[in-house]
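Feature request, filed as a ticket because there's no other form

It would be nice if the structure record came with a short human-readable summary line next to the tokens. Right now we just get the raw output. Example of a typical job, pasted below so the devs can see what we mean:
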Amino acid sequence: VFYFFFFKQKTAYEIKECDWSSDVCSSDLEVVVQLSCYLVDRGHGVTYLSNSLPKDMKSRFSKGTQFIITSTYPGIWQYTQWAIPKHDVVNVHNAPAPLMTFPRRVPTVYMCNEPMELFTNWKRKPVEAFNRWWVKKSGMKVVVADEFNRERFERIYGVEPKVVPYGVDYEFWSQGERKSRNNGKFVILQVGHSELFEEGREILLETKKRIPKAELVQLAEVSRKEVREWYGKADVLLHPIGSQGGWLVPFEAMCAGLPIVVSTKFTGSDLITSNDLGFVTDDYANTLNIIHKTLGNRRAKNSQGKLRSEEHTSELQSHSFISYAVFCLKK
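Raw output as currently delivered:
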């Protein structure tokens, strides 16, 4: 029996709002849930350690998963040191989680969603510098989701990571029901952190000059089911996000058959461009206008996008973090 040990580092939103209720804000936690279920269902042991866990997320772990929740970093470090001898692989998520394994060099897979630049707060700079040193010194395996973060991680840490796309839960997101037109309105959907919504509102003002009936729906801190329901109601997903996160949202929308518009600075844009999965642009208003003009063929286009998403989902999943973590375990 193999044992995995998890640590989940809170995102900026979760730290600020003390809220883990939204899957939108915890895409990396979704990866942990999927990996845990994969392992437990195959007879392996899993322990999840963190400083918090949403109630609705806990119910999605497979039965048999062990949970350790402690609120302080010293407490997390102590539990980590206690757990390491009892487990075969440690899986850490986001800085400074790798420091929880110090000073033990143990088989570790570091899932880094966003490599951090130097903190502007001087009190945090020594911590991040120590974290970078330990990641390199310990020889842990590092995983990032795309080429942008691979280049950024290698520049900051001096370590070359493995590019492993998260993978998409196609079975869940493809089950949403597509609704009829919204009384002639052109519904633009934006999903993510509320502090990133200002640009979406500015884009709407520009879009309304060409599409007077355009409306913007912005979702934050909501459940997966509600997000999926809106994927079915909307006409297009707008994702003007750069390197701030929100990696899974466009791919989830594609599974639901929704056309997507993402920024050229979105870190997953290389996957979208290379596989012709959506619109990658910074001219949002013009692109939204083009999509609006083709709404007569919307059903055909959505079906085509959904089938294309289904085609590439198996590729994403086969190279997903789950496969790489199991590969490291076997090594």
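Something like this underneath would help us a lot:
DSSP finds 14 helices and twelve strands in the chain.
The two ends are 15 Å apart (CA to CA).
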